[in-house]
């Protein structure tokens, strides 16, 4: 079973899908991690055993979950490989059991053989006096083997990365020329050293020594100048390549469905962005420097071989041992890199949460607890750094002794050759210089091996993003026009958020939203109002039922085109760190001042802008002036109005406004709404009472539908929702 396939989890919550991926591969089927994530109903909290079971059954496995003893686990009745619940918060694969050991494939670490006692510490807990643990047994059915291999999306490998570098051929040619000249200059130095000793010193010719030293000084100045120029070119090329790679990565993020960001921690994405500097280092400085280090090694090696074959053989053998010694440590570096990524990702998320939630932390006096959480992550960082330092020191210590041993033997052979007249003293010094120059390329080669490993690991994590299907796949044609009938119809629409065991948020919803009318959606908190709006905005794909715009399915419309037709104000709307004008006209490079003024008047925010220090050019957001929730909502309303859309979707758009501002804004909006199709989610009676139709949701189902007057007269759920507001109105 040593050939049991192994995959590492790419995110902290990926252990469940990754375990299923390993077992699928073991039985001969390859699935992408993203496919299995979706099948397990992956969420920010990861997956449950039930989610893994349903995903396994989807791809053709028969599953059985059980809580069993260790004796039952090691019996012949247990089908391996199976998935085990680990440390109460993780999943691993048990792929082999021997008399004294349990062989585990841990997606967060590696394949590990545990002694029985060690295994029980991670897997079992005491139930009714017995040590028991949870496992899921999987057996492939005929359906598993009949399923076709899934289509794989193109990924990026190291060779494809070089296309970024080839964009700057002229600069790279200059680098190549500079490195070649530098190599030639370095090659002259050992011959100058030999000449000084064998000619200048032996013949007591001080003028010759002056001449050679002057030449050596000029060569040194030339080499230094080349290094300075090369450094600037490396900076220029490296920066441009890094920007190109990062820009392409961010462009890919923009093409992903919005639901992707609901299941990913911000720290995971930010940490992947941080990985880009390792790829830049691989493509620029390390690759070119290593290439010419190899050239130097070949040239100086030939010269050394001409001088003394024995010393050349010693150098080759010592360097080979040194390289093999360093290669031994690459596997351990790889494991530490994965662990460091996961801890760094959690650290990023923790810091973002700490800074974003600082007001709540202070108000609820929970700073100490949050600080302890952060310190626990730093403790893990310290342990990983300690292990990394120990690994590096062991590698360096062994490499130092190997290198020094090689150098001592070389010096001995060179000195012996001088004593027996096989070499001159000048040639011995030249050989010592050459060996010193040869040691540097060997170190560079080892550095390149480590950089290549880092780049591969970073690419593996980046490809987890690149292989995901775009929101609008290129092979599918989407419509970019609206039908003549712009009414929206929801037919038997049901929706459940990712996460196994979650209850449906919407159940068989049937609604007709007429063109050019105002439709209000009301209901108690958690009844599915916001989810309904998100489905209308194509933030999620419909699961059951369909949404139509006229006679077209909403799924057939381009996401980008549809959202251009929609003006939105969501509960979690975002204010960018930019000027007020740019926050309103977010999609325009050139701001239309007439539309801007109109949007500001409709949102009743003109007085706020007049009082701001720089008017429309006042910076707001996290890096600018703080604004109240009411001002934020008015800016968001102005943004939606400025867009001048066909459709309006408001989710509690005026909930933070005072009664006076709300009355003015609603009067302005009612005029603006004329001829547009509007969907408003709200609790306030003042917002919904003038709607052409009101839809009442309860636990994801439509329970009432009508105008304000008819629904109040019916004294049903709508009446109960607004009863207190009716009394206040009276």
From TrEMBL:
Domain ABC transmembrane type-1: 175-454
UniProt GO MF annotations: ABC-type oligopeptide transporter activity; ATP binding; ATP hydrolysis activity; peptidase activity
Ranges annotated as spanning the membrane: 170-189, 209-233, 282-304, 310-330
Subcellular locations according to the entry: Cell membrane
UniProt keyword terms in alphabetical order: ATP-binding, Cell membrane, Hydrolase, Membrane, Nucleotide-binding, Transmembrane, Transmembrane helix, Transport
Source organism superkingdom: Bacteria
GO CC list: plasma membrane
This protein's record includes keyword ATP-binding: yes
Subcellular location, principal: membrane
Membrane topology term: Multi-pass membrane protein
Residue span(s) of domain Peptidase C39: 9-130
GO biological process, alphabetically ordered: proteolysis
Stored SMART domains: AAA (SM00382)
UniProt xrefs under Pfam families: ABC_membrane, ABC_tran, Peptidase_C39
ABC transporter domain location: 488-724
PROSITE patterns: ABC_TM1F, ABC_TRANSPORTER_1, ABC_TRANSPORTER_2, PEPTIDASE_C39
InterPro entries: AAA+_ATPase (IPR003593), ABC1_TM_dom (IPR011527), ABC1_TM_sf (IPR036640), ABC_transporter-like_ATP-bd (IPR003439), ABC_transporter-like_CS (IPR017871), P-loop_NTPase (IPR027417), Peptidase_C39 (IPR005074), Type_1_exporter (IPR039421)
Protein name from the UniProt record: Peptidase domain-containing ABC transporter
């Amino acid at each position: 079973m040593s050939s049991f396939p192994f995959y590492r989890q790419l995110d902290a919550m990926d252990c469940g899908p990754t375990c299923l991926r390993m077992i699928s591969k073991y039985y001969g089927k390859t699935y992408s991690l993203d496919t299995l994530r979706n099948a397990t109903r992956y969420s920010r909290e990861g997956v449950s055993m039930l989610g893994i079971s349903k995903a396994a059954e989807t791809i053709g496995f028969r599953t059985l979950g059980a809580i069993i003893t260790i004796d039952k686990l090691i019996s012949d009745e247990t089908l391996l490989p199976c998935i085990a619940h680990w440390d109460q918060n993780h999943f691993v694969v048990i792929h082999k059991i021997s008399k004294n050991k349990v062989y585990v494939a841990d997606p967060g670490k590696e394949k590990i053989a545990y002694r029985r006692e060690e295994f029980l510490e991670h897997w079992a807990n005491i139930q009714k006096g017995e040590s028991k643990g949870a496992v899921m047994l999987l057996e492939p059915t005929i359906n598993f083997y009949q399923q076709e291999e899934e289509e794989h999306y193109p990924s990026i490998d190291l060779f494809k990365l070089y296309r970024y570098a080839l964009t700057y051929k002229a600069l790279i040619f200059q680098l190549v020329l500079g490195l070649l000249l530098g190599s030639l200059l370095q090659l002259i130095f050992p011959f100058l050293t030999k000449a000084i000793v064998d000619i200048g010193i032996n013949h007591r010719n001080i003028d010759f020594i002056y001449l050679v030293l002057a030449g050596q000084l000029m060569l040194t100045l030339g080499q230094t100048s080349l290094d300075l120029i090369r450094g600037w070119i490396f900076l220029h090329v490296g920066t441009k390549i890094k920007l190109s790679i990062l820009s392409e990565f961010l462009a890919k993020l923009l093409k992903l469905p919005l639901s992707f960001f609901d299941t990913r921690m911000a720290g995971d994405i930010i940490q992947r962005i941080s990985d880009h500097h390792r790829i830049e280092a691989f493509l620029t400085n390390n690759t070119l420097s290593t290439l010419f280090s190899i050239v130097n090694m070949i040239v100086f090696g030939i010269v050394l071989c001409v001088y003394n074959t024995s010393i050349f053989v010693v150098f080759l053998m010592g360097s080979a041992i040194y390289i093999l010694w360093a290669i031994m440590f690459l596997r351990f570096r790889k494991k530490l890199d994965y662990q460091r990524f996961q801890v760094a990702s959690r650290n990023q998320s923790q810091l973002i949460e700490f800074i974003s939630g600082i007001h709540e932390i202070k108000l609820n006096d929970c700073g100490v607890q949050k600080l302890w959480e952060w310190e626990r992550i730093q403790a893990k960082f310290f342990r990983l750094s300690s292990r990394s330092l120990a690994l590096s020191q062991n590698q360096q210590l062994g490499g130092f002794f190997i290198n020094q041993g090689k150098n001592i033997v070389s010096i001995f052979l060179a000195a012996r050759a001088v004593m027996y007249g096989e070499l001159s003293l000048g040639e011995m010094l030249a050989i010592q210089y050459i060996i010193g120059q040869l040691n540097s390329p060997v170190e560079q080669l080892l550095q390149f091996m480590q950089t290549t490993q880092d780049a591969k690991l970073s690419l593996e994590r980046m490809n987890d993003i690149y292989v995901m299907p775009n929101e609008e796949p290129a092979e599918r044609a989407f419509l970019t026009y609206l039908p003549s009938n712009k009414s929206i119809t929801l037919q038997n629409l049901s929706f459940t958020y990712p996460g196994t065991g979650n209850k449906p948020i919407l159940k068989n919803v049937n609604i007709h939203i007429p063109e050019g009318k105002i439709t209000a959606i009301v209901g108690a908190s958690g009844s599915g109002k916001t989810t309904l709006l998100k489905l209308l905005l194509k933030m999620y794909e419909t699961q059951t039922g369909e949404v139509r715009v006229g006679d077209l399915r909403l799924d057939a419309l381009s996401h980008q085109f549809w959202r251009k037709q929609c003006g939105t104000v969501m509960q979690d709307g975002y204010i960018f760190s930019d000027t007020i004008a740019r926050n309103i006209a977010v999609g325009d490079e050139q701001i239309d001042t007439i539309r801007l003024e109109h949007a500001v008047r409709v949102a009743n925010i003109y007085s706020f802008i007049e009082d701001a220090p720089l008017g429309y050019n006042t910076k707001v957001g996290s890096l600018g002036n703080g604004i109240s929730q009411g001002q934020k909502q008015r800016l968001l309303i102005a943004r939606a109005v400025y867009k001048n859309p066909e459709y309006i979707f408001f989710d509690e758009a005026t909930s933070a406004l005072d009664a006076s501002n709300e009355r003015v804004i609603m009067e302005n909006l009612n005029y603006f709404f004329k001829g547009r199709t509007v969907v408003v989610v709200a609790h306030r009676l003042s917002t919904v009472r003038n709607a052409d139709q009101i839809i009442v949701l309860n636990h994801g189902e439509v329970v009432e539908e009508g105008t304000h007057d008819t629904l109040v007269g019916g004294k049903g759920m709508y009446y109960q929702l607004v009863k207190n507001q009716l009394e206040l109105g009276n």
